[in-house]
Amino acid sequence: MIRSLSRAHGVESRFSAPPSKSYTHRAMVIAALANGMSFLHNPLIAEDTGLTRYALESLGVKIHADTALIRISGRDGQFTCGEEKTLDLDNSGTTLRLFTALALLCDQAIILTGSSRMQERPVGPLADALSSLGGTVEFLKKTGYPPLRVRGTLKGGTAKIDGSMSSQFISSVLIASPYAQQPVELEIPSLPVSRSYLDVTVTIMRAFGARVMMDDQHRWFQVSNRQRYQARSYDIEGDYSSASYFFAIAAICGGRVTVENLNPHSVQGDRQFLEILRSMGCTVTEGSDTITVERTGELTGTDCDMSSLPDTVQTLCMVAAVASTPTTIRGITHLKYKESDRVLGTAQRLNQLGGDVRVEPDTITVVPRPLHGGTVDPGNDHRTAMSFAVLGLGIGGVTIENAECVNKSFPGFWDALAGAGL
């Protein structure tokens, strides 16, 4: 599928944020672990969350889903494998990482694998932690990377996890921990990246009845094995990562955009994207479940650390490309481990459109230059496709190849733009 973007100016649009992918993944897994039937309202139905459903059903979990509700019959922490299973999780890094720890709750070994890109995304620190907690992890091709075979028992105890590549290593162990034989205590040697996603994990764990303690720096966690998950009804929040593209339309094209279905008090780190837009010259107004971004004057560049909101780095690069002064974004090293190397990939694609983007070990700097249209191959990365689509609305003449890759996280993205006349 190919999508072409024409220039828009002075927009006046209203959108609804899709459900959060991060919340849906975690709530599905926790509901599957819980005791009883859970009802997840307003879930994200997309390729990634479909892979989590497939993995859960492969382990004996009964799930019924439609566009508005997922019903999950929890297994009280005991999965059924019957024999060694192989779970091919394509390019859903969240699914593969969460199930690496969940495999220790199964009665047989599990092999976790995925796409060629998935096999380039490291899981070594997670494997090391599980080895300390009773598991055995065997790498079947390259040490530290999928495919991997996981077997053993989640005994519990104390483990250290390096969270400098991904906070999902920590989330994986946390989510499984209420079913360990002993309480679990995690020590994080250095400040983890994407810390806000740990807040999401802990929020959902507590909502389902788990007892979790942590320090303010996300360097220490303790999970009780005496308070397990209990089934419940749970509402999935709207997604700030996906909403960032709509906010960026207002910033790049000028005008006003309102996004519904958002919790103004959410722990999602990508909510901070709004503060960055405000610092660049946008006006941000919050309602009870809506947020409006407006720009009428000049956009100026900024200097910010985005280590806790990695999924909006590319979106900000697009805004920065049409500002009046340079922007430097810090804390982005771990983006090279995503669905693609988002740092180099963003720089190369923006430069091909006339931009001036400079990459250093932990920073990316965007110097505004006159831009022109062109064809963008997103490399099967959903966030690359959506961020460059938004830029295309600002400069016109941009064509996105393999546009269906947005189905990974936001199947309704193109329809939402069309519905707004963009």
What does this structure look like?
This protein is an alpha/beta fold and 422 residues long. It folds into two domains: 3-18 and 238-419, UDP-n-acetylglucosamine1-carboxyvinyl-transferase, Chain (Alpha-beta prism); 21-235, UDP-n-acetylglucosamine1-carboxyvinyl-transferase, Chain (Alpha-beta prism). The protein has twelve helices and 23 strands. The chain has helices spanning 21-33, 47-58, 93-102, 124-132, 168-176, 195-207, 240-253, 273-279, 313-321, 342-352, 382-395, 413-419; strands at residues 3-5, 11-16, 37-41, 62-65, 69-73, 85-88, 110-113, 135-139, 148-152, 157-160, 184-187, 212-214, 220-223, 233-235, 255-260, 283-286, 290-295, 303-305, 327-330, 356-360, 363-367, 374-376, 398-400. It starts with a strand and ends with a helix. The model has no long low-confidence stretch (mean pLDDT 95).
Question: What's this model, at a glance?
Answer:
30% of the residues lie in helices and 23% in strands. It has 422 residues and is α/β, with parallel strands linked by helices.
How many H/I helical runs? Answer: 12
CATH fold category name of the largest domain: UDP-n-acetylglucosamine1-carboxyvinyl-transferase, Chain
Find the CATH superfamily of the largest domain: Enolpyruvate transferase domain
Number of strand segments: 23
| Average pLDDT, all residues | 95
What's the helical proportion of residues?
25-40%
First and last CA, distance: 17 Å
Give the overall form. globular
Strand order of the largest sheet: 2-15-17-16
Low-confidence stretches: none
Binned strand content: 15-25%
